[in-house]
Amino acid sequence: MREYSLLYLLLCLLVIMSVTIAVYFTKRLNKTRVIFCTGVVLVLLEIAKQILMGRIYASYSWSDFPAQLCSMPMYLCILYPFIRKGQKTINLFLRSFATLGAIFAFAIPYDILSSYLLLSIHSTLWHAILLYLGVYCVVTGEQPEGKDVRNSALLYLALAMAAIVINGLLAGISDGTANMFFLGPSRPNVLILDDIYEKCGWFVESVAMICGSEVAGIIVLLTGAWLRKVFRKNKN
Known about the structure:
The protein is mainly α. Helix content is 72%, strand content 0%. It is globular.
């Protein structure tokens, strides 16, 4: 399957339809159970992926270590029932940054369209689930307040800082391929970010990536909140 081919566009349409149907049938179920069970599904998919990669590649692909931005919903969903005071922040993180990761994955599908069919299927399912989580949390959530947006942004920042630490710790054994969140000191291997990395170094590239992601995540969050308000107004 080629990028942006008719077949790929049909795949994206199928994902959107599947997400819409899944949200429709789960929006009235217990939210904590839905999010936790979705986290369990993500854990099982991640285990399957790591086993598959071990059979495909001669050496471990550290860029696929489960500490990327799109891996975070797996951990947050599993923790969700046990962090009562942080549930709203997790909800908004899923509405913003999980959705953002899914949108970019399908918009720039170099990761989804692997040369290995099973990895392509896994990546498609994974990012479709992230999109589901984001839409589900929009439909079942409340309108975000200023402090909620701030807390979601701070959670992303904390996870991004942790990603930089992980990249630094894995730099030696990964031969520079550990690029969690596409942040330094490893090369991001992403368009535009690579140019910044080459010209300005990893620190500037990381700051640009974090700032850009924060802004994009807030835009996605506010857009979802606005759409929810519009649909509810029209429904009434």
